Amino acid sequence: MLFNLVSYGVLNSIRKKIYGKVKSYIYSPFWKLRQETLIKQKYDSQEKNLIVFVISNKDFITGGLMSICSIYEETRKMEEVHSSSVIMCTLYEDPVLIKLTKFNNKITIFRLNQLFNYFNSVERLLIHIPTVYCYNFIQRVQNLDSIQQEWLNSVKQVHFNILIQNKLYAPNRNLINIMSNFCHLLTCTTAHEKYSTQDYQEEINIPLHKLSVFVSPEQYYYRPYEEKKDILVVSSDKQEKKSKIIDKIHQNFPNLEIIIVRGITYETYKRLISQAKWSLTFGEGLDGYFVEMIFSGGIGFAAYNEDFFTKDYQQLPGIYQSYEDLENRIVEDIKNFDNSDIYQKIHQEQFNKLEQEYNYKLYQRNLKNFYQYYYQN
């Protein structure tokens, strides 16, 4: 493609991944010893109430992982609500992961096996499990050794909560039934309004509670139109019309810098979207590329996705009924919107809509209600 396509840090990212894998296995024994020391420093082995967040063993960055980390950090602030210690663990022993380095956080990570070996008085256990790891998690539980199984059986209340951040990856009824055999209570929490419904709750047949995600205006670097640059930020998602749409945009706006985001830290990404006028997502639609751009003072473009958008988004400027509709109209919209007064009007309409759904106080309230067993969909 003959336009200024900037793909940040792709080769460097690949290099780091290879180096990281080699390094992790070389230093694995040392890091395990370090984790054994840290768990003694940070937790009392006599803890009676424990909340566990399960994550992958990989040091990477996704919206889902950042959402889990946000829930973890907010949960730690609510000790007076749930009276529990909060810990994050990788599902497997190797490769060892102590710290997530791709975005700012202060989380120390342990291994799931450490729970069985260190805590000896747990009476109430809540484990948050992302949808994409439900199958692997239950396999892990099914294959516990006799000592670990005895430990789990000794806990008076075992509660598994499925973190549904993307309905398309949610476990099926069969897997849900299997999971329910290994706990006293099985629930799920959701990230999007679209599937936080009574109908969906009845479909999966377990208690459902909407958490939303911690995406709210105060987290971003807001810039008005006058301080923006001619930059279009594009998601890295694959979509069959993606190349054709981007080619068309470049042909009509040769001076527009088109940046496909790959291999950068979250902080770098936040500063990028604060400078850019536009974003175009080829992912879920109601995702970070869309929402975070708007909270940074920009305008987001997306194709309507019925799995994530509620119907009231269909009439919102910047939302297209399909990728074909997007392809046909986006060039004209960019031309029309690229004016200070019109730009601010469109941005404000998008901002007002999102602000109703995404705000920190509502997110905190939803999380608090969950820990008080007050489930709302």
Give a concise summary.
With 377 residues, this protein is an alpha/beta fold. It is 44% helix and 17% strand. A 7-stranded parallel beta sheet has the order 4-3-2-5-6-7-8, with helices on both faces. Strands 1-10-9-11-12-13 form a 6-stranded parallel beta sheet.
Notes on the structure:
This protein has 377 residues and is of the alpha/beta class. It has helices at 10-26, 28-42, 63-77, 79-82, 112-118, 134-142, 146-154, 173-180, 198-204, 242-252, 266-275, 288-295, 323-337, 340-357, 360-371, and strands at 5-7, 49-55, 85-90, 109-111, 124-130, 157-164, 185-190, 208-210, 229-234, 257-260, 276-280, 299-303, 319-320. The strands form two sheets. Strands 4-3-2-5-6-7-8 form a seven-stranded parallel sheet, with helices on both faces. Strands 1-10-9-11-12-13 form a six-stranded parallel sheet. It is elongated.
